[in-house]
Amino acid sequence: MVPVPGNPASGFRISGLPDCRSPREPAGAPSPVLYSPGALFSWVELQAMAADGVLTRLSQRGYLPPGAASTPQLRARAAACTIPPPIRQRVVAGRMTAAWIYGCAGEPDRMALLVDATRRVSSLRATRGCSFHEVRLGPFDVVSLGGLMVSSPLRTAVDIALHVDPERALPALGAMLAAPELGVKLKLLIRAVEATPRLPYKKAALDKLAALPSGPERDRLHG
After folding, report:
1. pTM score over 0.70
2. Other C-beta atoms within 10 Å of 186: how many?
3. What is the pLDDT of residues 88-114, one digit of tens each?
4. How would you label 128-158 residue by residue, b for 16+ Cβ within 10 Å and e otherwise?
5. What's the count of helices (H) and strands (E) in the chain, helices before strands?
6. pLDDT score for 31
7. How far apart, in whole angstroms, are the C-alpha atoms of residue 107 and residue 72?
8. Is 59 helix (H, G, I), strand (E, B) or coil?
9. Which of 2, 5, 120, 121 has the most neighbouring CB atoms within 10 Å?
10. 62: Cβ contacts below 8 Å, ≥ 6 apart
11. CA 157, CA 149: separation in Å to the nearest integer?
């Protein structure tokens, strides 16, 4: 008999992953359970349970009980499952990975991880399934979600405009601008890109932003 996920009597526990509860939620609020391959279940077993309807797939390596709503905190926890614990506190999920965590893009094939220029990145490059980008991070460029450091919405949008091809960047940027809870405004985003040091792809980034709908047109497209 397979225990029912989420049932305390079943003995399910997810080790190494913090509570995803929002600071606004009361202390007694139940926290959705996230399952990933490990000592309890293998990837094959989780896939089999998903096929039987016992679990629903959240990400490449993350599964939820049926009916559990996906949230940025849960997606951040799922992303953390793909990052080896020894380096998890040394990296920041960014670019399209952060856009996925915020619910503004699909899950990328590889986790895009930012590493502050003050840290050594050479020892991380052998990590599979991740791409590393050495950057400079300011005090307001990083937030904590689900126990994982993630680039802030504005920093994420700036990086996507600068470093991601238009085919993927424009839908993600449009979704971020249309999400009021993220607080990303087009004028602010343009100013942030203009304020970056001279880069060979800075003009291309501004061209991407110029192609984005704004105001009523954006509301119509995303409404």
Report:
1. yes
2. 19
3. 888 999 999 999 999 999 999 889 999
4. eebebeebebeeebbbebbbbbbbbbbbbbb
5. 9, 7
6. 59
7. 12
8. strand
9. 5
10. 34, 35, 36, 74, 75, 77, 78, 81
11. 16
DSSP SS3 for 26: coil
Cα distance between residue 156 and residue 23, in whole Å: 22
Burial class (CB in 10 A: 0-12, 13-18, 19+), 71: middle
Residue with tokens 């990975």: 97
8 Å CB contact between 62 and 34 = yes
Say if residues 205 and 129 touch (Cβ distance below 8 Å).
Answer: no
**In a 3-state reduction of DSSP, which class is residue 36?**
coil
* Nearest CA-CA partner of 174 in 215, 218, 206: 218
Instruction: Indicate if the pLDDT at residue 123 is higher than 80.
Output: no
Q: Give SS3 for 56.
A: strand
The total number of residues shown for the chain amounts to 223
